[in-house]
Design goal:
14 strands; Hormone Receptor, Insulin-like Growth Factor Receptor 1, Chain A domain 2; two-stranded antiparallel sheet; 3 helices; 240 residues; two-stranded antiparallel ribbon
Length: 240
């Protein structure tokens, strides 16, 4: 009787040990073949990936009071990839309205119903901007520019001559997508150096007139000198 009872107990004990070993084997096989663990360098049965290869990011997803880690090539919506010395992580964007962000505080794409402006997600565009698809655009940014005007007259100190170098400018205007928004988009302009006429036309005439007077006085002096000498010879008393 005792021998038979002992045999039954030992059989039950062996069965329990065998079943426990089978459960562990199944758990180990699940851990080794799990999609979450295939890309991991280190993996935990309870928390998933703990360490990822260098090229991948560790994404921790909250499950109740714990976190479950996976190694991903690109971080999911609402997160951005932050590379570190020891590990690359997926960090959550600060704004809950942000779908994709470049850094914690700079959004690159907003969730539906919001407009993106300078890294922020807004319900409406600020002043001097307008909504264009999913972004807020400055009024002047999409305004087509007009043709360049002709270069202005070369000036310096308000005059067109009398100096070696001056400045000249040209402009081109732009039309804005909103009416009466011209004041928001000032005309574009360019300035360049230009060569001037060193002498003004009046100075040239004055110089020309002055030179003519000098030549006339010189000619008169020569004529006077020549005529005076001849008259002296014809009127000298010793001649017959």
């Amino acid at each position: 009787m005792h021998l038979r009872l002992f045999t039954i107990v030992m059989s039950l004990l062996c069965e329990v040990i065998r079943m426990g070993s089978g459960v562990k084997q199944k758990q180990s096989a699940h851990r080794d073949t799990s999609d979450d663990c295939r890309s991991c360098l280190e993996c935990s049965r309870d928390n998933g990936c703990v360490r990822c290869p260098e090229r991948l990011f560790l994404f921790l997803q909250r499950e109740g009071m714990s976190h479950h880690g996976t190694c991903v090539h690109a971080c999911p919506a609402g997160h951005y990839g932050q590379r570190g010395k020891d590990i690359n992580r997926c960090t959550k964007c600060r704004s809950p309205d942000c779908e994709h962000c470049f850094s914690r505080d700079f959004c690159t794409k907003c969730k539906p119903g919001f407009l993106l402006y300078k890294g922020k997600c807004l319900l409406s565009c600020p002043k001097e901007t307008f909504a264009h698809q999913t972004d807020c655009i400055d009024n002047c940014l999409l305004a087509p520019l007009g043709e360049w005007s002709e270069w202005s007259v070369c000036l310096r100190n308000g005059v067109t001559c009398g100096f070696r170098w001056g400045r000249q400018t040209r402009t081109r205007g732009g039309r804005t997508p909103e009416e009466n928004a011209a004041l928001l988009c000032p005309s574009h302009s360019e300035t360049q150096r230009c060569r001037m006429k060193k002498k003004c036309p009046t100075e040239r005439r004055q110089n020309k007139n002055g030179l003519g007077r000098k030549r006339e006085r010189k000619r008169l002096r020569l004529l006077s000198s020549s005529g005076g000498g001849g008259g002296g010879d014809s009127d000298s008393p010793g001649e017959t």
